[in-house]
Design a protein that fits this description.
single chain; 83 residues; alpha+beta
Length: 83
């Protein structure tokens, strides 16, 4: 999808889920990873726009497997968003 920060549009992968691999949460949260972006956004208001569903939430056997899948998801998003 896309994430808007101060009226600037960034390409992103967006996850809505309960963190099943790291620490299962009671309620879903929204996590956003901006593609090819390196800055601190803590405390800033973000607006997200969902473009395409890539995959459902899954519990992985290890953090390494999760990281590997997130990298694959980022590549899929880059292709979809023509990055």
């Amino acid at each position: 999808g896309y994430t808007y920060v101060n009226d600037t549009k960034y390409k992103a992968i967006i996850c809505v889920g309960k963190h099943p691999t790291i620490q299962e949460l009671n309620k879903p949260i929204v996590e956003v990873h901006l593609l090819d972006f390196n800055d601190n956004l803590y405390g800033k208001f973000l607006y997200v726009e969902f473009i395409k569903f890539i995959r459902g939430v899954k519990k992985f056997d290890s953090l390494d497997e999760l990281v590997s899948q997130i990298q694959k998801d980022a590549q899929s998003a880059k292709k979809e968003l023509k990055l």
